[in-house]
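Model it.
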Amino acid sequence: MSRILSDYAEVTKLSPTLHNDSSSGNYQKNNTTLSEEILGLQKLYKKHIKDDERFSQERREFEQRCAEIQNQTEEDLSHTAALLIQINEVEQMTDTVLAHINVDKVVVTQVRQEIVSGSLESMS
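Modeled.
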C-alpha cells in the first residue's frame, strides 16, 4: 500500500493541479491533468498487479524449492541413520572377530607351551 501511495505522490508531483480553478479558466487544463493523472495511476496499478503476480509466482517457486530441500534432507537423514546402524553392526562384528583372534592367540600360546614343555620332558 505504501508503494502505491509513493507512486501516487510521484505522479502528483508531475502534475500538481488537482483543483478546479474556473475563475482563471483553468477548468479544461485541470480536467485534462486529472485525466492524465488517472491514466498514470491506472498504469501504475496495472504494473503493481503484474509485480504482485510475479512476486506471488516467485514465492510459490521458493516454497516449492524449500519443500523439495526439506524432503531431500529427510531422505538424507534416513539414509544416514541406516548407515549408522550398519556401521554399528560392523563394529560389533569386528569386536567379535578380534575377540576370537585373541582367544586363538591364547590357544596357540598354550599349545606352544605344551609342545615346548612336552619336548623338554621327553628330552629329560
